[in-house]
Amino acid sequence: MTDVTAGVLIVLGGLFAVIGALGLIRMPDVLIRMHASTKIGTLACGLILAGSAFVFGSPDIIIRVIAIVLFILLTAPIGAHMMGRSVLSTGVPLWKNETSETGNLDEKLIAEHTDATIQSK
Amino acid sequence: MAGGFPKTVRGNGLTGILPVGLAALLFAWFASMLPTIAATEVIRLTIPWIPSLGIELAFLVDGLSLTFSLLISGIGTLVLLYSNTYLAGHPQYARFALFLTAFMVSMLGLVLADDLILLFVFWELTTLTSYMLIGFSHEAKKSRRNALQALFVTGAGGLAFLAGLILLAAATGTTSISGIIAQGSALKEHAMYLPILILLLAGTFTKSAQVPFHFWLPNAMAAPTPVSAFLHSATMVKAGVYVMARMHPAMSGTDVWLWTLTIFGAVTAVFASLLALRQTDLKQALAYTTLMALGTLTLFLGQESGYAMTAFATFLIVHSLYKASLFLVVGCIDLSTGTRETDQLGGLGRIMPITAVAAALAALSMAGFPPFLGFIGKELKYAGALAVASEPVLVAGAALLSNALMLAVAGVVAFRPFWRGTVPSGQSPQEAPWQMWAGPIILASLGAVFGIYPDLLQVALVAPTVISLTGEVGEVKELQLWAGFNIPLILSIATFVLGLLFYARHVQLRGMLERAFTAIPNLDTGWDRFLDRLKGFAKWQTQLVQNGKLTSYLFGTFLTIAAGILLTLVYTGMPMIAVDLSDVEWKHTSIALLTIAGALLALVTNSRIAGIAALGVVGIGIAMIFIVFSAPDVAITQLLVETLVVVLVAVVMLRLPSLPKAEFRLNHALLSVAVGASVSLILIAVVSSPLDLRLTEYFEATSWPEAYGRNIVNVILVDFRALDTFGEIAVVVIAALSAYALLRTTRKGDQK
Amino acid sequence: MNSVILRVGTRYLAGLLLVFSFYMMLRGHNEPGGGFIGGLTGATGFVLYAIACGTQDARAALRVMPQTIAIWGLGIALAAGLFAALFGDALFTGQWLFIGATEDDKGLPLSSVLVFDIGVYLVVFGSILTLVFAMEEEI
Amino acid sequence: MNGFLELSLEIGFLCVVASVVMAFIRLVKGPSLQDRVVALDFMTVAIVAFCGLAAIRYGTPAFLDVALVLALVGFLATVALARFAERNTYRNRKEAAND
Amino acid sequence: MEFLFAITIGVLVAAAVYLMLSNHLLRFIFGLVLISNAANLTIFVAGRLTDGAPPLIPEGADAPTLAANALPQALVLTAIVIGFGLFAFAIVLVFRAWTSLNSLTPDDMRLAEPEEAPK
Amino acid sequence: MNTFGLNIILAIAWVAFTGSVSLVGLITGFVIGYGALWLIQPLIGTSTYFRRVTAWIKLVIMFHYELIVSSLAVAFDILTPRHRARPAIIEVPLDVKTDTGILLVTNLISLTPGTLSLDVSEDRKTLLVHAMFADDHDAIRKSLKDGMERWVIDAVEGT
Amino acid sequence: MSWLLALPVVIPFLTAVLAFLTRQSPLGRWISVAGSSLLLVASIILMATVLRDGVIAGQMGNWPAPFGITLVADLLSAVMVLITAIVAVAVSIYAIADVDEGMERLGYHALFNMLIAGVVGAFITGDLFNLYVWFEVMLIASFGLLVLGGRPEQIDGGVKYVALNLVSTIMFLTGIGLLYGMTGTLNMADLASAVDGADQRLLTIVAVLFMIAFGVKAAVFPLFFWLPASYHTPAFSVSAVFAGLLTKVGVYALLRMFTLVFDHDTAFTHTILLWVAGLTMVVGVLGAAAQSDMRKILSFHIVSQIGYMILGLALLTPLAIVGAVFYLVHHIVVKANLFLIAGVAQRIAGGTELSRIGGLYKSAPLLAVLFVVPAFSLAGFPPLSGFWAKFLLVKAALDVQGWIIAGIALAVGLLTIYSMTKIWAQAFWEPHPDGVEPKLSSLSNRERAAMLIPIAGLAILTVVIGTIPEPFVQFAEASAAQLLDPTAYITAVLGEQP
Ligand code: NA
Ligand code: NA
Asked: Residue C23, class by beta-carbon neighbours within 10 Å (0-12 exposed, 13-18 middle, 19+ buried)?
């Protein structure tokens, strides 16, 4: 039974991984691609790791798996945030369908962030 | 060096006197050996030096070496005495005296050495000290040039000489000179005889300035006159002659020996005497006459007859006496009048009477007038020449011509300045102080004394020398002023007539010679061209290999790698290769492909970020390999390091410009493929046979029971091979400190 | 880097990485890990700190100059090797002390090998930070 | 290990490797710096999953340790590159302003 | 399996050599990273490859039943760290080359070996 | 959360890492955690808060629910040939005050597909969110404020 | 026994640690001097022991060979360690005057001692991978020292030095991997017999790979580019220790590996080495002839003289190995000294470019004397050490009818004379172009002592080797015997084995 659960989780995780990667290829601009990679990737990873927790079943493995997932949950969004921020501040061209409400956002961000970074030196 | 003798004739104090005393002591010491040697005995002194190479500090005093020793130490004493006044007050006199004394000692060592290698040591020491002495006026460019020339030419010969000595030692199985001579004629039959001879002669001919290696000697006159007197008349240049004489018993008697020495000697003698007459500078003229003497001595050594050997021994002494004397006289004239040009000299006889007498005595000996030793020498020369086995006429003719020219030169150098004309205006010459005329007078007088009492010389030196040369007592010929009316006497008379004629016509002759010699290629200007060519070639070659371009260096290095491996492969043939693809899973293939794809992306991309990302992909691919093939520790480390690499590159790249577009270079591509293919091929061959797992099995067996660790990799790192790990962390520390230092000096460097 | 999110995240992550790095180091003898991996991980924590809050803050937090840490690490590693001299063993011979050892259980192992690994940890940690801090400051 | 799990694992590997390959395509195509970095970041996460699969496949929890480390530090590269992009833009603009 | 990765290593080396030969220091660095990886992998592959058996001794056992060759792993680990040290220095050097020589093309760096030797 | 609490968490983390739950392990973890915190001291301001266990549990559950539901939405968009997405960058005013709170909010928003936290303004009052399905900006703002931010405030800053 | 072997490595490391911790104060330099002196004492004891007991080996960590790492000292290793210690003492004293406070604060003394540790480690290890590690220690320390000071030409030279040495390092590493893959062992004594079981064709190829990797380190033709590109750029004490020691580690490694392990097809491998030796001699000496800077001339001469040492190895007769060992020792002393002297010349005459300096003979006669000794020793004048070195090798070449190579060796000697006299004529004899009189008295008493004492010491050593060569020749003979018949070495490491 655990094997079946694990198998399902693994296959599901694998499918999500593929979907995430597909999103990475298919989606029209970088921010949208990040949606695909950050969350779906995390989800896929979590599912597969959960699968392995099921297979091993021992508490230390489960704790370890939980730790891994927590670490990813902690770090992945921070990375995504950094990337997103840099997308805005470097003025990467976005998809035509973007409907942002802030007009000169990138200028503002550059002024706000990078200035401080450089000046802090 | 214009304008009078030094104000003070007190010389250079203790620095000046000590060497004289030392030299005199040495002379006295050698003189005390005369009775022993005259009794045809030898004195030996042997101290072990390098037993493992069979090299000894072996010294031998026999007739030949004692003759040389006495000449060296005796003339050395007088020259040092002379120099003390000649260079009185010179700021570098101490160095001068040191070098001159060192030279003298080296020269003594050379003639006393009874070991080939020891001999060579002293041989090179004379080269070195003479280099220092020729370049004594080191602030003059000419001195430096001529010193280098002398060093280079004799040094080149010296190296050939060394090769010859080594071969000689190998052929005879000993480095002992006595030992070699004792082997008798075995050497002459040895297969290596000819190469040995050629190499040895290369050394002796250059050192003794035989044509065509003669050009350095006149240039060496850049040295102060006492040096010329000592080195280039009496001693150093005779080192070559000495060695030929020393090896005479072991090596002479073959056709090669005979003809080589005869031809080189004869040509040198004639050529040099012509050149001597051509000179207007007294010192230069004397320098060429030295060449003539060296040629003559070589010529004699070519022979085997007792006449030739006796003539050699006698002429050796004669020449040393008069030539040293004349050089010293020229030094006096030079200091007194400020010039050495014959045309600007005259009438010095009344003002410098003692010097004039010395000059006259020496010149008469040189010209070969009776009753001077020079006359006896000349007679023996002719006798020796006529005793030459083949072509005696040619040899005698050469001797005649050179002797006549010698007479003319003697007139020009030692007669004219004193006894003809008047002192040119503007000169106010004085008699030399006694320290400076003592030497010439003593040496010149000895020429007369020995001429009148030849037996003195005969018994004490000539006979023992000839015995050294021939090994037989019976070969010694009598030294006598009157040997009866014979062919040598007739030749002597002819010499006088011809010589006086040459003297009378020397100005016209000089003009003729001038024209003739400008037509002959001059090796001296050739020297400068040689050096330029050498430098030019060196520059060209260096530009070629060391062109300052890193890409060339890298290309060369990688080319060496590829060529080294592939050519070796051609030599060895293909190593055993077994390809087993049965256990390859699709996973493995995809990981490999991913890694390759990453590498190719890094290769082709013009975007820095794509490049870094590509490296990241390669890193990930390799980490996956480590994971799949059971190396979790390595995988973790790989991933951590990869992350840090990206971080560092990202920091540094902020200041670097974008990548330029890469141009495709076919030669680079071919080389890269060759290197890559070689590595692949070797690795495939390596993994084609099974691996001996002794070490790993030991680690597996002992890791837990003995090293208390379950992670074998970690146990290897911190226990089995902890020293590696220690070195490794040292690398990490040093890398950090080095990079830190490099970064921190930025500001300092930029501010400059 | 002037990001609130990163700064706050770093607050947790840096500590987590440090603790995690000690863990990786200590377990290294029996499980994947060890001084290198520990040191690298620990350094990563401070690298993150430096990126998020600037090197001044990171240096202040570290209190000791990183190069001093590195060189002390080297000294400690060397000392761990030299320790064997006291027992007449060769350089880098592991010296073990099992606290509370019984028949079945080896107890709590203390060893020169562990000290060595700590040295390795400190070297890697200190060296990387030396490098990264200096680069951050100079570039 | 039964057949179902083995099959699932094989599918899992296939999917993960395929996703890595697709991410690589994005990495090659770019076009922006961020695209490439996102692709690389995705690969990192995929390797974490890969470690999980390897741990099951070979019955060795040791590979989970690899995942553990990677989960913690993997994002550092992303952060560094993102920061590079920002600072680089700023520098370029500043230089352009100075010109 | 080894064959496959031997080929992979060859490609890595070839790419690395080409990059190192390009007259640009950043590309040289890229090449350096690649070739270091290739060298590490060479040791690993030369020590033979074993799937799924990390050289860890299970609790309760005295020795592993089947384990991958641990020695090359230790060597590679050492080599990776050393390689990192060298890389770190190299990248800083490249940076310094840019700031003090204002060039990343080494063939244009002619201070140590000037084009024309001064007379 | 005060320093002590953080330390406890680190100690627990330690136990988690070592995988052996014991007093010795906990103490060791506490000591090592203490060391780590000591090192990063300047980062930790003085702060005291209750832990709201129930709020935490709710947060965890809701987060996972959101994660799965919106993942499916994004996956659907990826897999279907036409892009339904109407992406936009939206400014969301922030009520959450504490560092931990901000981090949680932003991270959780990022982790739920469809929304991605791009940045927090320097004054910590505004959050920039990239939303994939942003036909109605205000609706998104509202759902975020009433959903994720609310739950986080309850868990972290609740009285 | 094992501590005797370990101490020469441990001492410089401890010194480096202490020197680094005290880098902000002048104490660092004294620690460095003390550490080097201690190293000297340790290496003397080591040498005495090896002379008394023959080859000694120590198993680090008490793990038996070939499983752990073995440190081994035969006569060659012992003498290399000893000479390294001597150079270390000389240079650490010299550095007191030569290295400025800025460099000290950046850790000069620590880097220097780490370099020495790496060199000593390389000489004393009996494990191939461990050799790689020491190579790296040495290499990375040399990187740091080379660019310390950060002048642009240092950076330029550093780029080339680093780039090419990294290539060599990676080749070495690859070679180790391959050799391990063939034999399953890393212990060099163990390798000596383990290679017999390997595919001999493959072994030859791997041997060539090692030859190239070590060839870069040893700076032989056509792999020496990095050396003349960089050695004239760093601080003088740095270039002295580089010139003396670094390339010699490469030569040592060649000597060790190609007598102990790769002796299966000497007809091929050692013929290549012979070609390499000849070309290296010639190309190096011509390179020197093309230079006009003292340090550049000396740098190219390093290359040229490496050729002589390789010649000894290539001929592989007892006498040739004697010559190589003798040359190795002589060269380290002499070459390090010449670079130190160049440093003094730079200080008092204002440079090393020969056309811009002069007058040293007239106004600094002591320096002139001190220069003459190593310079003419290098040129091979008797009775200085270089003569015997050259003599032995030429004799060895002639003994095997190697006419051409002997001729090359001699001709290169002549060109060496040319270079040395060029320096002598232009820096010493020729008046200074600016009319200044460079005097040693322009240095402070402390500087004068710090710079001249090591120079004088090394010069005296040169003279001693030259005039009393017997013990040195005997030593070299014993060492060559050990190299050519490695039984003692192997037994010392592995114990009595079938
Ligand atoms: Na063998
Ligand atoms: Na000059």
From this structure: buried
Tell me the chain F residues in contact with residue C7 when contact means C-beta distances shorter than 8 Å.
99
Nearest CA to CA, how far is E100 from chain C (Å)? Answer: 13
Strand, helix or coil for residue B305: coil
Q: Cβ contacts (< 8 Å) between E67 and chain C: which residues?
A: none
The domain tally of chain A equals 1
F26 and F85 assigned to the same domain: no
| A98 contacts in chain F (CB < 8 Å) | 87-89
Q: Residue E63: inside a domain, yes or no?
A: no
Tell me what pLDDT residue E116 has. Answer: 62
One digit per residue, the tens of pLDDT, for chain G of length 498 reads 788 999 999 999 999 999 999 998 889 999 999 999 999 999 999 999 999 999 999 999 989 989 999 999 999 999 999 999 999 999 999 999 999 888 999 999 999 999 999 999 999 999 999 999 999 999 999 999 999 988 888 999 999 999 999 999 999 999 999 999 999 999 999 999 999 989 999 999 999 999 999 999 999 999 999 999 999 999 999 999 999 999 999 999 999 999 999 999 999 999 999 999 999 999 999 999 999 999 999 999 999 999 999 999 999 999 999 999 999 999 999 999 999 999 999 999 999 999 999 999 999 999 999 999 999 999 999 899 999 999 999 999 999 999 999 999 999 999 999 999 999 999 999 999 998 889 999 999 999 999 999 999 999 999 999 999 999 999 999 999 999 999 999 999 998 765
Backbone torsions φ then ψ of G481, nearest 5 degrees: -60, -40
Residue A54: give its domain's CATH number: 1.10.287
What local confidence, expressed as pLDDT, does residue B746 receive? 52
- The dihedral sign for the CA sequence F1, F6, F7, F9: positive
CA-CA distance, G17 to G21, in Å (whole number)? Answer: 6
**Does C47 touch chain E if contact means CB atoms closer than 8 Å?**
no
Q: Which range of residues forms the domain containing residue E12?
A: 2-51+68-104
Q: Which two tokens stand for residue B233?
A: 């008349």
CA atoms lying within 13 Å on the CB side of residue F14: 28
Range of the domain at F74: 52-157
Q: Show me where the domains of chain B are located.
A: 14-504, 513-546
d(C-alpha C117, C-alpha C26), whole Å: 8
The CATH class of the D3-97 domain is mainly alpha
Question: Chains with ≥3 Cβ pairs under 8 A against A?
Answer: C, D, F
Contacts E70 to C, Cβ<8 Å? none
Q: What's the pLDDT at A102? A: 54
* ipTM (interface predicted TM): 0.93
Which of C36, C47, C136 best tests the E interface by mutation, with the highest count of E CBs <10 A?
A: C36
Contact G444, G298 (CB under 8 A): no
Question: The domain containing residue A55 runs over which residues?
Answer: 2-120
The residue count for chain A:
121
From the number of C-beta atoms within 10 Å of its C-beta (0-12, 13-18, 19+), residue G317 rates as middle
In chain E, how many domains are there?
A: 1
Mutate to test the interface with A, among D6, D90, D93, D95 (most CBs of A within 10 A): D90
Read off the pLDDT of residues B138-194 as tens digits, 9 standing for 90 and up.
Answer: 999 999 999 999 999 999 999 999 999 999 999 999 999 999 998 878 889 899 999
Q: What gap in Å lies between CA D50 and CA D63, rounded to an integer?
A: 9
Which residues neighbour ligand 1 (ion) by CB within 5 Å? Answer: G 192, 263
Q: Does E26 touch chain C (CB under 8 A)?
A: no
8 A C-beta contact, residue C37 and residue C28: yes
A75/D18 touch (CB, cutoff 8 Å), yes or no: no
Q: What is the pLDDT of residues B287-337, one digit of tens each?
A: 889 999 999 999 889 888 888 888 899 999 999 999 999 999 999 998 888
Please report, rounded to a whole number, the percentage of residues in chain G having pLDDT higher than 70: 100
